[in-house]
Structures are given as C-alpha cells and as structure tokens.
Amino acid sequence: MHNIPFQAIDWTQIPKTTHPGDKGLAYWQTLQFDGLRIRIVEYSAGYIADHWCQKGHIVHCLKGDFISELESGEQFTLTEGMSYVVSDNLSSHRSLTTKGTTLLIVDGAFLGK
C-alpha cells in the first residue's frame, strides 16, 4: 500500500453506483487507493445482499440499522454509532435491513490473512 497524502473528501462530489441485492438496492460511493477501498454505502429498505461475503471489512453504521448475518446463522444487529470488523476469509457474512441504513465501509489488503 502506498502512502496517501492528506485530503479532505466531499462525499457529495463522489458519484453513486447502484448494486442490486437479492432484494432492494445498494448505492456505493467509492474511493479506491492502492490496497485500500473506502465507501459510503446506502442500503434501501428491505435490502438483502445477493451473496455471502468472505472479504474483510471495517463497517461503521452512520444512520439507521442493519443485521450482519453469518452463514452459521448467527445475526448481529448494528445500530447508528456501532461498528464491526472482520478479516478476510474468517466469517461468511451478508447484510440485510428492513428500514434502510447508511454505512462507512473500509477494506483492503491490510485485512488479509
């Protein structure tokens, strides 16, 4: 990973991309650096991810609430101000929300095993 010089990020200037789930939509605003991805992700009401993710993340709930479901069946409800962290290939997980949520998600090579 390369050094990243100081920069202020105006998220209103970062375009949104649309990613359909099994149900609902996810809207991503993404900054990509070498070995580091930073996103603001909004899930619509009724969103259910379309896959089990093996990637590591640091996830912080900015608004609303969501469930992080593990493939084992465990579920963790995260509300505004809560976070979770997981390394690559440690827990298959997916997100779902009934009312919608906005998340800050950071992932990259530093979470690899």
TrEMBL record:
Protein name: DHCW motif cupin fold protein
